[in-house]
Amino acid sequence: MIATAVLCLVVLPLAAAAVIWALRLRRAAGLVSIGLSGVMLVAALAVFIRVQERGPQTAFGDWIYIDSLGVIVLTLITVVGMCAALNSQSYIAHDVARGELRAEDEARYYALFLAFMATMAAVPVVNNLGVMWVAIEATTVVSVLLVSIYRTGHSLEAAWKYLVLGSVGIALALFGTMMTYYAASATIGESAGALNWTELRATSVQLDPDVMRLAFIFVLVGYGTKVGLAPMHTWLPDAHSQAPSPVSGLLSGVLLNCAVYAVLRFRVLTMDAVGGSYADHLLIGFGLFSVALAVPFLVVQHDIKRMLAYHSVEHMGIIVLAVGVGGQVALYAAMLHLVAHSLTKSSLFFAAGSVVQAFNSRSMHRMRGLLRITPIPGAALVVGALALAGLPPFAMFTSEYGLVSGSFANGRAIIGVAGILLVTLAAASLLYHTITAAFHEPRPNATPHRTSVTAAVSVLMPLVLLLWVSVAPPARFNRALDEAVAVLEARR
Amino acid sequence: MSHEFASDAIDVLSIAMLIAALGIVWTRSLGWALVLFGAQSLMLAGAALYAGLATDSPHIVAAAGLTAMVKCVATPWLLWLLLQRLPTSHDAQPSLGQRTGLVLAVLMALVFARTLDAQPFHTAIGAERVLPTAVTVMLIGIQIMVSHRQALSQVIGFLVLENGMALAALTAAYGMPLIVEFGIFLDLLLAVFVAFVYTQRMHVIFGSLDTERLRSLRG
Lengths: 492, 219
Known about the structure:
Number of helices of chain A: 19
Helix content of chain B: over 70%
Number of domains of chain A: 1
Distance between the termini of chain B: 58 Å
Oligomer: heterodimer
Strand order of the largest sheet of chain A: 1-2
Number of domains of chain B: 1
Largest sheet of chain B: none
Structural class of chain A: mainly alpha
Shape of chain B: globular
Radius of gyration of chain A: 21 Å
Largest interface: A-B, 52 and 41 residues
Strand content of chain A: under 5%
Low-confidence stretches of chain B: none
Order of helices and strands of chain B: HHHHHHH
Shape of chain A: globular
Number of helices of chain B: 7
Low-confidence stretches of chain A: none
Number of strands of chain A: 2
Radius of gyration of chain B: 18 Å
Mean pLDDT of chain B: 84
Mean pLDDT of chain A: 93
């Protein structure tokens, strides 16, 4: 069953992408992408239930290995992917009608979209950390092409920076992976299996600590570039803001998770091998620096998509910070924050896409009367902003509270205090910008804008799910987070 | 083939790779930079061949073949094609002077050769000797990327970084498992292809390959 699910998640969308590209399908391509996203969602949910009921699953020899950490990342990819596919329909049709995209770009868009989904879905299901690297690099190559789908100077600039910085980052991550392989070949022996998570984890306490120390720095800086950790984050606001909005939602909502996931795997190995707080100190440093660096940019930002992108830098910083603080409470908070950020940020980017198309501007100063001109995306923006600001009852309140209380419990009070201050500043600026836009009187000649059903569903569905896991989390959800935390706990 | 012989040969080849990297820092001609990169890749393939023969591992020999095909032939050829197609200047446009750039790179090489502690990496084919050279080649690749405004020079810098890393992987861990090697080469080729497409588009939109034009997104 796991084998079939993996085929549906990785091979099927790649094959469909090839067919769409070859036949230059246009309207049909949109429907195919919705259908396949649905198939991927069902497959991921089936895997989720199977893993929860029977523990970690393997398939295709031991090439595929899915545990509770991977399954959370995988499920988020498919949920957000489904919404992005729905959102793409009217968004892309609008841009083609206005001539911003060429008609033949529609086929390219959907082909790349499906290929992007497939490469992301491959990341949390493979066992071999080398193969995982290949999948993450593949996400870069595919998503770079999506960022540059508008043939303008700006999108080319964003894509070039993303390609160059992303490639260098990922090359450093490969160097770290290679060192891990060196350390492992001493204990496991030289074989492809020496990079398998299952074997590495079984022997992780015997890995050479000196080598793993060096390996972790390279992995953290390398994959950290993809996570958008400061100071390697400079490509992120450009790429996330220049991409078509459905893709921005995917880039920010779930691609960043894939990179965090890779860092988490190596963190566990490094902690087992090195012991103590070596990895955690590095994570705290990068996390805190990212949050601190993002805040001033948030305060002055008027471009709605760039603002959301800087919020991604901030929230990835929070997640990495929480992981670095460590301990059961903070790790739980990190996982919860990861889920909440995916759902909130994807909805916000989808809503921002509709709003930008309605106002024909990205500046929040021009979006006066947001709630009257674009009622559904406007309302989603306001609710999403409240959630992202970490107000109760939304899950980010719980997770940020968990981060702070975890840091106090672990004797790292100063980190908690710094975290509270920075997060409050970021939240205040976000609420200020959104509320000003939402409750101003609209311009006199502005007319209300219709939102298509698919677009409305795509912005509301993540928020409904967010509210569900925030207010009345189902038992399965809590259990999944608990089990993911158990995977993250080190042996030393 | 004895391990000592292979280890000496790889050591010599790694120094030659370093010299090729310095040559790329020095030259102002993109054509020469491509030739030097191709030569560097050939030395890398040679080092892989020695390592494979000395340790009797067919997968390293296969990786040497892949290196020769992808990095020695396909990539330089693709970039050469691009140079021919674009009616642009073949000047590499370094933002550092020739001498400053070279002095910086040589200093970096000396510092690393003296200070990098490669003792934890010990292998039969002499990783502890080659590793500092490999890391220096990686750093020179990064230097080439940041000190050139020309888009193609940046791509070449990235490829030099890749070569340095492959050398490190080869000597420290006898290369990666073959399936991972395959994936790496595939991704590398795709990335170079995307850069190929973008440089052409850059030329259409801006009329040059100067990345100084790519500075309008800020804040």
